[in-house]
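Task 17 of the worksheet. Students: predict the tertiary structure of the chain below and write it out as structure tokens. Keep your answer in the requested format; marks are given for formatting as well as content.
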Amino acid sequence: MVGKKIPQRNEIPDEHKWDLTPLFDNDKKWETMFVEVETQLPIYQKYEGRLKESVETFKVAMDFHLGLTRKIEKLYTYAHLKSDEDKSNQLYQGFHQRALNLSTRSSEMASFMTPEIQSIPDEIINRYMEDAALGELRFYLEKILRYKPHTRNQKEEQILAMSREVASGPSQVFGQLDNVDLKFGNIIDESGNEMELSHGNFMTFLTSSQRELRKKAFFQYYKAYRDHKHTLAATLSNSIKKDFFYSRARNFNNCRISALFSDNIQETVYDNLVKSVKRHRDPLFRYLNFRKKALGLKELHFYDTYVPIIDDVDFRMPYEEAVTVAVSAVAPLGEAYCQALEEGLLGGWVDRYENRGKRSGAYSSGCYDSPPYILLNYDEKNLNSLYTLIHEAGHSMHSYYSRKHQPYVDHDYTIFVAEVASTFNEALLSRYLLELYKDNPKMKAYILNREIDNIRATLFRQTMFAEFEQITHAIVEANDPLTLEVMTENYHKLLQLYFGDSLILDPELSLEYLRIPHFYSAFYVYKYATGVSAAIALADKVVKEGDTARQAYLDFLKLGGSKFPLDELLEAGVDMRSPEPIERAVAHFDHLVDLLIEMQ
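Model answer:
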């Protein structure tokens, strides 16, 4: 019996798609702006060598540069959103490549600006920064001047700018292979229907109560990665080598310092995370052992770690209902926040459902001149989809507030704080659902189980990923070979360390690192773990302390990128320079495990 197939893009109703007309009404207008920007690139030459002439000349040059960059971001946003709708659509793949190329050429033309700003005598640049006409640029200039020890001369900067497009090769190859070419075959679902296994429904199968079904889905899914393991290992290895090249070119001691520098994050923050989580693995082991017992299993495998411990809970929540629940959950943030969120989620921000060729997973994107867009692959039978919706909504509302309250030059917040805003919303959702189902022990336990698994995946698993990144980059930095065998062996050791004897490690699981897109953005994943730790602390403050804490949190969202992330979080009420938030997050996890065990 043939079940539902993944629909083509043109089979998805328009009301279920995002509305990109605030960016461009049609492709022709995109082409018009593309040509306009392209013809303006030579104007950069007009300002080369003149930035120290006067405040007036400097401001005109900066206004031109930021204005052109803003237009390029608009072009790129449209192109990447359209290309992610269907990775097999060659027209929009072309748009995406052209936008990347335009950005590279713009960076090449502007490559003189940073070294020239850094070469301006101190007395002149200090006078510039005190001038009221450049008030909005003060923090922007401070960040540029910080990079003085890591900036090359003009010709070298031009070459580095020219290399950007080529350097994106490993990530692009992985994206095309993972989203378009990999096929996972068909599988018989719980109802006896044959359907295509995909990124979008893989996690749904792992939550099936039928162990043989989730086992089959696991091995069938990983077979595709095993069959392409050499290619995938090569793309990841070369991506890490790319990171090493740029860290050396920028005169950083190592790749991690290079990645953390722009956010002004000390290595101790990263180290505190890894050390604290590894020191407190016992609650994780206790939970996994309880999970094995609750499921009545002799052995616990990875494909047993997502199925709800509480059975006979038939979860089904259509998208529109999920929006209602999400808005209700964030009520502690006030009426204005809720109204803006509801209007966006129902009014064109979201591309809701999976279609053939669509980028897997979920994200929030956009630019200064667009709404905050959300890509989803929503599945109404999967509770994780509700959490994903409110997670991405947290990102989007962060963008909404930052663009509303900050000038273009300071609106773009860092990923470090972005993951706080998203997981903060998840924390509020869990609180809301636990209260909503307080008189329904089975549903309450189901939600509690989901919250535990979310923290497990975000705090413990992402920290393991973070340690893997540190290990693999260190291997390249030592000029040792980073092969498939080396990466697989190191990943297997981490699995043993983080899961102990509580989990049977099937050989396929040691290839998990080959399917993680975030590894192509170096030292990114640790921010999920620090983010959930900060979010747990801040959500607790907002719920318990009321108006003052809520306003502090909303003010934090409004800061955008106008300060360094650790300083922004300190204003919100949490100090991530200390291991204390990590310790609190682990303690919170431990408490939830206690509650769940007590309910059984």
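Marker's comment: The longest strand covers residues 186-188. The longest helix spans residues 441-477.
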